[in-house]
């Protein structure tokens, strides 16, 4: 019997210890079988039946002598121990990255090969790993059997419910061994560790840009393809990422589930809360490796780096203008479309971006959350605080590329450059005289009013 499954005893032993699959006996073979007395499944090998029965009994005979965690199969214990030892015996022969389990290496190799062997039988969508296909299928079935007993939200997988519950409980069981920061999800810790290691294993084959996570690469690729597969059922807007859709829908629902425990302010996105809390803590964990400047959020660092590289990867399909940020392109497009989707619920004024709406609302509330730590003066916008701080520091980081003169704010440079170009964009509609600055035009207009 065992000779049918393996060539020698060693191979047989390996099959036994790595038995994640359980081989059932085809009914037409008529050979000796081992039957489960609980669910009646049949198996070709007694060892397979023994492992299978642990599903019913909950038996976990293999115990880690370091942390006490128990497992139903010996090879699961072997894999687990590598968490403690740091052993990574499986190495990618393409990029050299190492992994603690063989299955993770197999999944990783799909990044290089582009292979997506798992196909959805409903829509044909392909995936590089089985787990992603399983998650995807819930879109079609809409089955969500696991309900949160705090907020009644339902989930398609118990692991998703477990992760979700940590929003309510504040549980963060995964700790970074570099900086001690804790996270509610292991995947978030893995991504976070790449801040320290600077690892970016996911590379775009179109433009060569590299990313620290597969999801970031997938989203980035849509910049090139223009694909927006996620549709809002309330306003018909489409998005390139599911997260963007979820965040967008909160404009309609008004939901702000993330609350600051210091000042009580609420946010529609967790990363906005994280960034906001750094106003209180002063933390700036993202540092530019070119000039050393630090930032409170990664996106600000990425934007800043483009001031060094001059990169502008986002192009308007209508006028051809280039932008360094995708959000700037989205806002710019509204100049062409006239779209103003963000409406003030106090005065009814509409805006082309959520940022403009948030800033506008402070005219009603009087809120000035950005405070100068030198003189105590407060501002309604962070950029106003940044400009103000230069009064104290004397910093003039913006330089004219023609004469080298320096300025503390971009608008001063724009006005200055018109000395070189002769540009006078502000025209008097009474006499036709033109000016390089708007304040000069306003001063001139007083002549006509006398």
From TrEMBL:
Main location per the UniProt record: nucleus
GO cellular component, as recorded: nucleus
Domain (C2H2-type): residue spans on this chain: 34-61, 62-89, 90-117, 118-145, 146-173, 174-201, 202-229, 230-257, 258-285, 286-313, 314-341, 342-369, 370-397, 398-425, 426-450
Location relative to the cell: Nucleus
InterPro entries tied to this protein: Znf_C2H2_sf, Znf_C2H2_type
Keyword Cell division: no
GO molecular function: DNA-binding transcription activator activity, RNA polymerase II-specific; RNA polymerase II cis-regulatory region sequence-specific DNA binding; zinc ion binding
Keywords tagged on the record: DNA-binding, Metal-binding, Nucleus, Repeat, Transcription, Transcription regulation, Zinc, Zinc-finger
Family the entry assigns: Belongs to the krueppel C2H2-type zinc-finger protein family.
Name recorded for this polypeptide: Finger 239-like
Organism: Octopus vulgaris
